[in-house]
Amino acid sequence: MTLTQQDAIAFDAADPLAPFRERFVIGDEPIAYLDGNSLGRLPKATAARLRDFIDHEWGARLIRGWEEKWVELPTSVGDLLGRELLGAAAGQTVIADSTSVNLYKILHAAAGVRPDRKEIVVDDTNFPTDRYLVESVAAERGLTVRWISPELVENVTPALLDSVLGPQTAIVLLSQVDYRSGTLLDLAGLTAQIQAAGAVVIWDLSHSVGVLPIDLDAAGVDFAVGCTYKYVNAGPGAPAFLYVAERHLAQARQPITGWWSVADMFAMSGDYEPAASIRKMLSGTANVLGIVSVEEGVKLLAEAGIEAIRAKSIALTEFEISLVDQWSGSSAQTLVTPRDSSLRGGHVTVRTPQARAIADHLIANGIIPDFRNPDMIRLGLSPLTTSFAEVWAAYETARSFGYSS
User: Among the options 21, 41, 146, 230, which is catalytic?
Assistant: First the structure.
């Protein structure tokens, strides 16, 4: 069946989540924003909350705000995010720092949980920060990095993992959704496989949190990290989150031992005594404005419901994939995102030799995609803000691009 603009209009009219779009700041430009998996739109509730915070909490309460509320925000909002988006019971999730800093902490903590083992496994196609930090922590702790090289679409499989897991495997670091292809890994199945080999697993949830259901506790995950400025819509540079399973908290140690991680942060003790709780994973003073933005983003997602969000995500990506198939502009164009929705996250990626030129053409015409070196265009479809009409507009604009032979 050939899809038309009328189909996009009809899909929007039937979309139960369509009213949520009006709860974000959306102007006339760009015509279509298809990069919500890099930076989500601004929720109107967040803008109002920040204005109120500046006027009343910071402006009026001043330093009294710390005692009244702010000190507890990393854990209270962490519990909210954990409950609504991670399937995590209270006391295991905290909001702090960036994903990079949190991953550095978690890698050290995980290595301490398996001190008798000497290898870290990571795929050589993972996000650059993840790979760089694995190399850095391995060098600091005298560990060996075992690299795996997954195929782009099929990605990390049980067979590929099995080829490197062994008695010296301490940690395996994986991203639940591949940042390039959008491939969704089997979090529960791979976690069980890794743990059966005696290792612990760290999951990077940056491209999955807020767009699909996650159940860390049920899957028995050891550690996890992720950002909040993509599908959680917490804003540029918003603080990230980290998760430590309750069973590891007593043993977990992290290397950035700032005063926010101690048992009594106002005792100003001469000796470092880490908190017994998830607060031990904190370091310095909390980014209060950023955590407030995370809170508003999570509340909005919770109201919509993560199952409904996932259903809309599948519908959007299936619509996009159908349009990619329908586009006859170039035989060199290749879909590198799984067609099976159970194996796909929230974005669709197309590979073409002219990806850079097509992306520039889209941007010049008011369509914001995401170009990934060297030859991929990534289309991030954020369920609460992306309409089917936006996806259609991108398709129409891309078809107007003049290919050279």
Answer: 230
